[in-house]
Amino acid sequence: MAQMIFVNLPVKDLETSKGFYQKLGYGINPQFSDDRTACVVISDTIFVMLLTEPRFKEFTKKDIADASRTTEAILALSADSREKVDEIADAALAAGGSPAGETQDMGFMYGRSFQDPDGHIWEAIWMDASAVEGQG
């Protein structure tokens, strides 16, 4: 079985957050969702667990970061092309997200970032594999 990642994010309004990710083209797995949790399916191996803040608090003794004021993580997703980067970022902005930084264009690598409705920062990144072959 391929290794999977489950990114757990606290959200203020579960329905708003679900709608945002659905507008980006991602599905919700109802088997792992309820009135306090939604499982967003990014790919066969990547899932975002949206948890209401009270539900998220059940998993930690630490304070929950207010992602609209502090950065707890930057989540990056690969894209197959520069156009796909733009498609993802434009969809996020149209769905109620906000810009998180300047477009980065290094020729062989291209990326854009955005914030979801709770302020979590996401990046969509394309890299020309031929430009980095043999590196490392």
Describe this entry's structure for a reader:
With 136 residues, the protein is of the alpha+beta class. The protein has helices at 14-23, 53-57, 82-94, 129-132; strands at 5-11, 27-29, 37-41, 46-52, 74-78, 98-99, 104-105, 109-115, 121-127. The strands form 2 sheets. Strands 5, 6, 7, 8 and 9 form a 5-stranded mixed sheet that branches.
Short description:
This protein has 136 residues and is an alpha+beta fold.
Strand and helix map with partners:
Elements: E1 5-11, H1 14-23, E2 27-29, E3 37-41, E4 46-52, H2 53-57, E5 74-78, H3 82-94, E6 98-99, E7 104-105, E8 109-115, E9 121-127, H4 129-132
Parallel strand pairs: 1-4, 5-9
Antiparallel strand pairs: 2-3, 3-4, 6-8, 7-8, 8-9
Features:
4 helices, 136 residues, five-stranded mixed beta sheet, alpha+beta, 24% helix, four-stranded mixed beta sheet
Report the end-to-end length measured between terminal Cα atoms.
27 Å
Shape: globular
Category from helices, strands and their pairing: alpha+beta
Oligomer: single chain
| Sheet with most strands | 5 strands, mixed
**Strand runs, count:** 9
Poorly predicted segments: none
Helix content: 10-25%
- Tell me, rounded to a whole number, the average pLDDT: 94
Order of helices and strands: EHEEEHEHEEEEH
In percent terms, what proportion of residues is strand?
Answer: 25-35%
**Alpha-carbon Rg, integer:** 16 Å
